[in-house]
Amino acid sequence: MTGRSWGAFLLRRLAGTAVVVALLSVGVFGLLYLAPGSVQQTLLGTRPATPETIAAIQARYHLNDPLPVQYLSWLGGAVRGDLGTSIRTGTPVADTLGQRLPLTLALTGYGTLLAVLAGIPLGVVGALRRGRATDRLVVTAGVVGLSAPPFAVGLLLLVVFAAWLGWFPVYGTGEGFADQVLHLTLPAAALAGGAVGMLVRFSRAALIRELEQDYVVFARARGLGGAAVLGYALRNSLVPILTAAGLIVTGMLAGTVLVEVTFALPGLGSLLVDSVTFKDVPVVQALALLLTLLIAAVNLLVDVGYSAVDPRVRLGGRAS
Amino acid sequence: MTRLPVSVAAAFAVLLAVAVAAVSAPWLVPDATGQDLMLGIAGPGPGHPLGTDDLGRDVLQLLVAGARTAVPGALCVAVGSMLIGNLVGLPAGYLGGWVDALAMRWADLMFSLPALLVAIVVAGVLGGGYGLAIAVLVVLFAPTDTRVVRGAVLEQRHRPYVEAARLKNLSAWRIMTRHVWPNIAPVALANAFLNFAYALVSLASLSFLGLGVPAGSPDWGRTLSDNRTQLLANPWAVIAPGLAIIATAAALNIVGDWLYERVDRRGRAR
């Protein structure tokens, strides 16, 4: 591959991502106007509607300017880290997000770790035992994991491992590292379910495809051991597994909302639900914008990473 | 006809049970939401095989009645998104050009969004309840159907029967609807099953968060959120609806996957 086409690919993908983020930011901004009631009322929330506060809100959000100007000033503030003030608590939204973020990151990180540790080995076992009872069991378990909503799994885990067996605490986030890990284990396991299902499916299919390739047959014919051949095939099947990463991240983001509500964990997900229920539009806007950026960044990273490994993606223009 | 795999047979059995419950709920459990506040939440006992929830409602009756709220909404989403998918995907695949480019850019944009999160935000901020949640999910699911239909049409477009129809000077619309569509319909149907499963889970999730069905409905997701703080008093009030959601969604996915495989094999053999 020449450097020129690599650069062109990168530029094209960056431009595509920028367009998507711009379009979605208009949608996020529009939430304020879609919410029932007048914009002023929505932004006032529970604050007393004195002429001073109304004037302050109008000045703060440039409500007397034309819409595009309002949008730009909102976006400009967001870019500089000014995400407005929460209607519910009256505190700056950026501070609240900063407090809530670590828990959500820890939960999704732990969930991803559990999903990779369970999903890829299960997929490999399924591929090696293809068509046999073990494989059918693995495939069915994968479909169940993919289908089951995290809140239902979480509650079932709570019943069995917290209420009946008493191995894990029912609620709370814990103090100190070991205690926190203990408290986050059930939520992370509930969150991992969907990703395990996806990883089983992708890794099994990818490894089966690799094992049918000529180079595997040659390697076997040359007398290479099973473990060495499996090593080659596994390395090559990692590329398609990587494409599942985007799907897994978006799945995890939706899942963390349900899991945090199920286990009453004070993360970004439960903040989103509380804010949506309370119609705390500035917080909802900030979270939506954050999620938009996060998902766009992951999709971009996956695409770029994938094309760095497999030049055909760049030549074809787009991954399919 | 090959023998049905065990998992597919089991999935059909689950779906049959859910369908029977959904259809016959008004006769089977006419008073499912009847409360017995004196009793409150209680474990399994005489008259209540799975116990009662915090309002003294019978868990087993709620479970049966819950099928009636779970299925129709999800069915609306699956059918609605399939209709849009066909309406957009058929011309996109057959005509190509700017129609295709426009449809695919739209699909790309929608694909970059996690459907459930958007539904939470939009349904929550607008506060439109169950009907709005269904409408939002239809719009968010439609790109998948569009992609699937378009892909299937691309495969058919250069087949001899399409060329023959074109030589007879039939209109593009007529070729699309009368000749191409019957050949891609099985793929669209198999995909609708997978969407049905996803819609069921999404609507249950919204109801769990209090953004779906109205309070007091005998909905599986709603029952779970109502009883999640009382795991010790009657765990069955959580186990029963939880298993119902997981089993139904898994059964729909298994049947959908199986249909897909069959349709795919038939398409290749042709």
UniProtKB/TrEMBL annotation, chain A:
Please give the coiled-coil regions recorded for this protein: none
Q: Where in the cell is it found?
A: Cell membrane
Q: What is its main location?
A: membrane
Question: Which residue spans traverse the membrane?
Answer: 14-35, 103-125, 137-168, 180-200, 238-263, 283-302
The record places domain ABC transmembrane type-1 at 101-302
In terms of superkingdom, the source organism counts as: Bacteria
Entry-linked CDD domains: TM_PBP2
Signal sequence region:
none
Q: Name one Pfam family in it.
A: BPD_transp_1
**Keyword entries, A-Z:** Cell membrane, Membrane, Transmembrane, Transmembrane helix, Transport
Q: How does it sit in the membrane?
A: Multi-pass membrane protein
Q: Which family does it belong to?
A: Belongs to the binding-protein-dependent transport system permease family.
> Can you say what this protein is called?
Peptide/nickel transport system permease protein
From TrEMBL, chain B:
A Pfam family found in this protein is BPD_transp_1
Annotated membrane-spanning segments are: 87-107, 113-142, 196-216, 236-260
**May I ask which residue range the UniProt record assigns to the signal sequence?**
1-21
Keywords, alphabetical: Cell membrane, Membrane, Signal, Transmembrane, Transmembrane helix, Transport
Q: Which InterPro entries match?
A: BP-dependent_transpt_permease (IPR050366), MetI-like (IPR000515), MetI-like_sf (IPR035906)
Query: Keyword Transmembrane: yes or no?
Result: yes
Identify the residues that the record assigns to the ABC transmembrane type-1 domain, covering every copy.
71-256
For membrane topology, the record states: Multi-pass membrane protein
UniProt-annotated location(s): Cell membrane
Q: Belongs to which family? A: Belongs to the binding-protein-dependent transport system permease family.
Record-linked PANTHER family = OLIGOPEPTIDE TRANSPORT SYSTEM PERMEASE PROTEIN APPC, PEPTIDE ABC TRANSPORTER PERMEASE PROTEIN
* Name assigned to this protein: Peptide/nickel transport system permease protein
